[in-house]
Every structure is written in structure tokens, then in C-alpha cells.
């Protein structure tokens, strides 16, 4: 279910994001994410440093799906064609990889009427604590040029997936997505999620 929700986030033109019943305040940098099913609330799974990007944590959806927007502008709904958005979540399946995710995204884009699709070959970048494998899908939707950024950060124990949708200022926003994904650290390598 988490996988379906994550993929649908990118491809549904208008999505209603659930808000918490009470306001939550997020620190603008070094946001800490907890394992999906950890009994120890002090155990953290990963951190992202958003100090080198315009994208800031905006919302946390059910299933530990973290939504980032430019300057943390929160809305009730986001559209693929109007909002540049990045989401991050833990992959439950250790067998999922960027190439498989890209294939699923391409299928959904085709079904949505996207044309002129170009999928880049996955490229791996090393950080201190993880290997980040990235790919992108360039396409047009009703004449508008867009891009989907995909990445999986893998530290050998956990995989964190990133999906970003860009409709404007494509190169700058893509670089911000890369900066955010590549900032990942895993403060407690023994954290478990299952």
C-alpha cells in the first residue's frame, strides 16, 4: 500500500495531503526520520540536511512519507503541473531499485498521456554513509516539459526512496533534489524497521 501511495503521489494531478490533527513544527535543517515500526522512539533511521537546498520539510503523510516543497510552503493539495515537490520514504522491499521504480513511473506516465519520454541510465554516487543511485525521466504533458527525479539511498541495511516532480526551473530544482538526497546520513546504523 505504501508503494502504491508513493507512486500515485507523483502521477495524480491533484492530490489531497492529509494534515495532522495538531500542528507540527519541523526544524528547517537536519530533519530526523524515525523507523516506520520502531518501538524505540529515540532510535532514528536517517537524517536529511536541507540547508543547501530551497526544499524544506512540509508535511509528513501516513506511512512515513515526507513531503518537501520550496521554502516549506504547505497546501491542502499539490498538482504535478504547478508544484515542484520531493518526497522521501523508506523502501520496504530490499529488492526494489531505481531501474524498477523508473519502469513503473514510465508506465504510469504513459497512461497519463505523457509523451517524448527520455529515461536516463541509473548513476551511482557515493556519500560517506550510503550509495545514492539516481535516474531521471524527462517528458512532456500537454506540451509542458517536466522531469521526475528518482533516487534510492542504500546504506546496506536500509533503502530510502526519493521521488521529485519538477515543472519549472528544471535544472536548479533537480540540483536541489540531488543535494537533499545526497545529504542523507544514518545516525543509528543498527536501527530496525521490521
Name some characteristics of this structure.
194 residues, alpha+beta, Jelly Rolls, 8-stranded antiparallel beta sheet, two-stranded antiparallel ribbon, 12 strands, globular, disordered N terminus, disordered C terminus
In short:
With 194 residues, this protein is of the alpha+beta class.
Can you walk me through this structure?
The chain is of the alpha+beta class and 194 residues long. The protein has a single domain, classed as Jelly Rolls, CATH 2.60.120. Helix content is 19%, strand content 36%. Strands 4, 5, 7, 8, 9, 10, 11 and 12 form an eight-stranded antiparallel β-sheet that branches. Strands 1-6 form a two-stranded antiparallel sheet. The model is unreliable at 1-43 and 189-194 (pLDDT under 50).
| Contiguous helical run count | 3
Main sheet characteristics: 8 strands, antiparallel
Question: How much helix is in the residues?
Answer: 10-25%
Number of strands: 12
Detail the poorly predicted runs.
1-43, 189-194
Number of domains: 1
Shape summary? globular
CATH topological fold name: Jelly Rolls
Overall mean pLDDT stands at 75
The string of secondary-structure elements, in order, is: HEEEEEEEHEEEEEH
What order do the helices and strands come in, and which of them pair?
Layout: H1 2-11, E1 14-16, E2 31-33, E3 46-48, E4 55-61, E5 65-70, E6 77-79, E7 85-90, H2 98-111, E8 115-119, E9 123-126, E10 131-141, E11 144-154, E12 159-166, H3 170-182
Antiparallel strand pairs: 1-6, 2-3, 4-5, 5-7, 7-12, 8-10, 9-10, 10-11, 11-12
Amino acid at each position: 500500500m505504501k508503494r502504491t501511495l508513493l507512486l500515485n503521489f507523483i502521477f495524480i494531478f491533484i492530490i489531497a495531503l492529509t494534515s495532522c490533527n495538531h500542528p507540527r513544527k519541523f526544524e528547517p535543517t537536519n530533519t530526523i526520520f524515525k523507523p516506520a515500526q520502531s518501538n524505540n522512539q529515540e532510535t532514528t533511521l536517517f537524517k536529511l540536511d536541507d540547508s543547501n537546498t530551497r526544499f524544506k520539510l512540509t508535511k509528513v503523510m501516513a506511512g512515513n512519507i515526507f513531503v518537501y516543497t520550496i521554502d516549506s510552503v504547505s497546501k491542502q493539495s499539490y498538482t504535478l503541473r504547478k508544484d515542484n515537490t520531493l518526497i522521501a520514504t523508506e523502501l520496504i522491499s530490499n529488492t526494489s531499485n531505481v531501474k524498477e521504480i523508473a519502469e513503473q513511473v514510465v508506465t504510469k506516465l504513459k497512461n497519463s498521456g505523457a509523451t517524448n519520454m527520455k529515461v536516463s541510465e541509473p548513476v551511482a554516487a557515493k556519500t560517506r554513509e550510503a550509495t545514492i543511485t539516481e535516474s531521471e525521466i524527462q517528458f512532456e504533458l500537454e506540451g509542458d516539459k517536466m522531469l521526475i527525479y528518482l533516487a534510492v539511498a542504500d546504506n546496506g541495511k536500509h533503502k530510502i526512496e526519493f521521488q521529485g516532480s519538477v515543472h519549472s526551473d528544471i535544472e536548479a530544482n533537480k540540483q536541489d533534489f540531488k543535494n537533499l538526497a545526497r545529504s542523507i546520513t544514518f545516525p543509528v546504523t543498527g536501527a530496525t524497521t521490521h
